[in-house]
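BUG: 3D viewer hangs when loading the predicted structure for this chain

Environment: internal workstation, default settings.
Expected: structure renders.
Actual: progress bar stalls at 90%.

Input used:
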Amino acid sequence: MRVTKLVSQKRTPSRVNMYIDGDFHCGISLDTVAKYSLYEGCEIEEEKLKSIAYNEIRSRFLTRTVEYIARSLRTEYQVKRYIRELSLKKRGAWFNDISKEEISKITEYVIQKLNKYGYIDDEKYAIAFIQSRIKNRPRGKSVLVGELLSKGVARELAEEKVNELVEDEISLLKKTYAKKFKESKITKEDRKKIEFLLRKGFSWDLIEQYIEDESRE
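Structure tokens produced before the viewer hung:
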């Protein structure tokens, strides 16, 4: 087999379309061209073509994932889910036939790269998430832990960071209540207000303490 043409892509100048024996084969990056010493007219073996295709796909997954996490902090779980969704979306565009085992290896490769450069860190994610919630959308400890678990943060880490950053839960409850009900008072008969606070993750004991404090003021 022979590389018969390497044509720059109009939309992405850093990539070229590679033709084998006169037929379009795939799009590749200029890095891949350099790495495999490709040029028009060079002979190429089937195994080398497979290696080029696999490494090219792996590189594209890494690039897209870096772009994904650049927009916002992500957990390792979220990154893995993104790669899985991307593999389904790009089937037929980036590749036609790739096994689950190969996708699993690509995912491992991407995760290792991101961990190496500190691009994903579940502890940093948990801290930033909790601090954002406290500032903008206050919640009780149980809801915060639950939300972190849904993002893929390990329970032990989620509970540790919530307990570390939410030292004064009663103040958080007051902030949550005031944001919703302003200066309106609360009593044990205010079922809707109590249910609201329970949904926000505050325990009945904490709510009762708040009601009693309010009644003494």
